[in-house]
């Protein structure tokens, strides 16, 4: 069973910083990429950032220049969030894309960690 465990969420002042981490375990295949999505109450889940195994990254326009995604190793992804704004408030979800037998890709999700930006 694949498990993704997120940590690092919390309450922060506008302009402050948080660092989210996610560790994947239980995979029998290669983790092709990892990333972060977020969802605020009443809104659709949206892509925040993704990173693949050769460290190519993609960011949502709303977080470019403020957030940085990185990989410690094949099983771990981080999201450094700087200059946080109230509109960044959401539940943040870690995702991992895993390539298994027959080049079949499956995506897995963590349970989410809450980020609240408020004064």
Summarize the topology.
Elements: E1 3-7, E2 10-12, E3 18-25, E4 30-39, E5 46-52, E6 57-59, E7 67-73, E8 76-81, E9 90-100, E10 104-109, E11 113-117
Please provide a written account of the structure.
With 119 residues, the chain is mainly beta. 0% of the residues lie in helices and 60% in strands. The chain is built from no helices and eleven strands. The chain has strands spanning 3-7, 10-12, 18-25, 30-39, 46-52, 57-59, 67-73, 76-81, 90-100, 104-109, 113-117. Strands 2, 4, 5, 6, 9, 10 and 11 form a seven-stranded mixed β-sheet that branches. A four-stranded antiparallel β-sheet has the order 1-3-8-7, with no helix packed on it. It is elongated, with a radius of gyration of 14 Å. The mean pLDDT is 95.
Percent in helix:
under 10%
Whole-number mean pLDDT = 95
The succession of helices and strands, N to C, reads: EEEEEEEEEEE
**What fraction strand?**
over 45%
Characterize the main sheet.
Answer: 7 strands, mixed
Oligomer: single chain
State the end-to-end distance. 40 Å
**Structural class assignment:** mainly beta
Beta strand count: 11
Which radius of gyration do the C-alpha atoms yield?
A: 14 Å
**Overall body shape:** elongated
Q: Spans with pLDDT under 50 lasting ≥5 residues? A: none
Helical segment count: 0
Which descriptors would you attach to this protein?
single chain; 119 residues; mainly beta; seven-stranded mixed beta sheet; four-stranded antiparallel beta sheet; 0% helix
